[in-house]
Write a structure and sequence with these properties.
This protein is α+β, with helices and mostly antiparallel strands. 42% of the residues lie in helices and 18% in strands. The structure holds 3,4-dihydroxyphenylalanine.
């Protein structure tokens, strides 16, 4: 690059007017430099060296002064032509490098969504959701469908059609959240999932084998065993020749699937308006294996939910012929089942969102 340092403004003082060969050399040297640039920064440097103030090319401009005026115009035009050629090369190279850098930047910025970072803390489904899904799997395995129903209900679906008449204690407004959108105390947040039995009987072809998980609402102050919004799972089977024995067997099967083969279940007579006969189902206490402890209040058994044969009044409300069809229903709290299975002391831990609690499951 010795020529470069010679190409200073004072080159005019010594240089003889340039010839065509020198001009061609200067052009090819500059073009080589421009071509060799590998990124925008090196192109800028090449541009400075090729046509910048202190470049060989600038030196040639200086030399124009030494030309005879008659030759100067022609030499100037030749120089201009080279200059344009170099400018074009620089512009083309700049476009090429800009595009390449953009591609490179995009590649670097691209998110690799397949990447798994073992160090990152991964979340998971809430325990109640997991238990609900497990329950769904167990019942799907027995041939049931998973159904849903509305959380806002009318008095008819939540109470009357379920054989809970107007003056029945089970519909005490002390327990019920009413929705202030219609005539007083006609719209409410469902207090149980049983109203979905009515929707199913109204809109489904028989037979029905369905379970309905969902949120229900009661005006309870939260404590260790109560939440004002909690989850239930309702079951409804209506077919020809369904018996109480089928109900007992179904409960035994799901209790074993959820709690393990060593846990036993039993039915105890109870009363629900929408089933007859009705029963409460209980499981042997997992803490003491049935011998009696604090958790089961010394009885050896823990109550899980209610069940029974579908009451004729429910069939009547939904126009199902009780001569042809029989059925059973059951319902229980998913949150309560989860605290029993996992030995959790307080239902409220499910809604406090304390990660130290949630991540254990
Ligand atoms: N709906 C009842 C409750 O919330 C639970 C229940 C009892 C559901 C008996 C049923 C049943 O389907 O047959 O307390």
């Amino acid at each position: 690059m010795a020529r470069e340092s010679e190409a200073s403004p004072d080159a005019t003082l010594r240089a003889a007017p340039f010839g065509a060969a020198e001009l061609a050399d200067a052009q090819s040297e500059a073009l080589t430099r421009i071509e060799a640039a590998t990124d925008l920064a090196s192109l800028e440097e090449a541009e400075r060296q090729a046509v910048g103030k202190r470049s060989h090319f600038a030196g040639l401009y200086q030399q124009l002064r030494a030309f005879e005026p008659s030759e100067r115009k022609d030499a100037g035009q030749r120089l201009q032509k080279v200059r344009r050629r170099l400018d074009e090369a620089i512009t083309a190279k700049r476009a090429e490098l800009t595009a390449a850098e953009r591609v490179g930047r995009l590649a670097a910025d691209r998110l690799d969504l397949t990447e798994v970072l073992p160090a990152a803390r991964q979340g998971h489904l809430h325990l109640v959701t997991r238990v609900r899904e497990e329950l769904e799997d167990v019942f799907v395995g027995m041939g049931y469908e998973i159904a849903e129903g509305p959380e806002i209900e009318t008095d008819w679906y939540n109470f009357q059609a379920l054989n809970i008449p107007v003056d029945h204690p089970a519909r005490s407004s002390v327990d019920t959240f009413f929705v202030e959108a219609a005539e007083a105390e006609t719209l409410l947040l469902r207090t149980h999932t049983s109203p979905v039995q009515i929707h199913l009987l109204e809109r489904r072809e028989l037979p029905i084998y369905a379970v309905v998980p969902g949120l229900v609402y009661r005006r309870d102050t939260p404590d260790a065993t109560h939440l004002p919004a909690f989850h239930q799972l309702e079951g409804l089977v209506v077919d020809r020749g369904v018996s109480f024995g089928d109900l007992a067997g179904t409960i035994e099967t799901f209790v074993h699937a959820i709690f393990g083969e060593t846990v036993r279940s039993r039915l105890r007579p109870a009363y629900f308006p929408f089933t007859e006969p009705s029963a409460e189902f209980e499981i042997s206490c997992m803490i003491c294996d049935g011998s009696g402890c604090r958790t089961c209040a010394g009885t050896g058994w823990i109550e899980l939910g209610g069940c029974g044969m579908v009451h004729p009044a429910v069939f009547e409300a939904t126009d199902v012929d009780p001569e042809e069809w029989t059925g059973f229903a059951f319902g229980f709290g998913i949150d309560r089942l989860a605290i029993m299975r996992h030995g959790i002391a307080d239902l409220r831990s499910f809604i406090e969102n304390d990660v130290r609690f949630l991540e254990q499951f």
